[in-house]
Design brief:
There is one protein chain. This protein has 145 residues and is an alpha+beta fold. Keywords: Nucleus, Transcription, Transcription regulation. InterPro entries: bHLH_transcription_regulator, HLH_DNA-bd_sf. One of its GO terms (cellular component) is nucleus.
Length: 145
């Protein structure tokens, strides 16, 4: 090979790489990020010796569920009462949704609750939203209460 053909091949390859960079940059700007959080809280306020409570519509404070969806990945964060079968119920529901579990971490939080983190991947053709996932998990956790 002579110098001209080597330079020509190098130029073609650089143009190919530039096109790939451009394509990847376009894809990264099109990433879809959705986040939904369900929290039940009770706020207690004290003011100069008197106290009062502001309750949510639900008397129960847990579970708190957060789902973040980015493309086909889902990050679930669940703060739930410490009960037997909570994790198995959550994973069962995740399986029913045809989600692939990539990572799971369960940490006891105090004496009465769990902090659960799950990262999943959904099939490309799946149209699940973060709101739907949270609603399904919330319903399942309340059935086991």
């Amino acid at each position: 090979m002579d110098k001209n053909s080597v330079l020509g091949d190098a130029i073609k390859y650089l143009k190919h790489l530039q096109e790939r960079v451009h394509t990847i940059e376009e894809q990264s700007t099109k990433q879809n990020l959705e986040s939904v959080v369900v929290k039940r809280s009770r706020l207690q306020m004290e003011d100069e010796g008197s106290s009062y409570e502001i309750n949510s519509s639900c008397e129960q404070h847990l579970p708190e569920i957060e789902a973040r969806v980015c493309n086909n990945h889902i990050h679930l964060s669940i703060h739930s009462k410490k009960r037997n079968g909570v994790l198995s119920k959550i994973l069962s529901e995740v399986e029913k949704l045809n989600l692939i579990v990539i990572y799971t971490n369960v940490t006891p939080f105090g004496n009465f609750s769990f902090d659960i983190k799950i990262i999943t991947e959904m099939e490309e053709q799946s149209s699940l939203t973060a709101k739907e996932i949270v609603k399904i998990l919330d319903s399942a956790l309340h059935r086991t209460a």
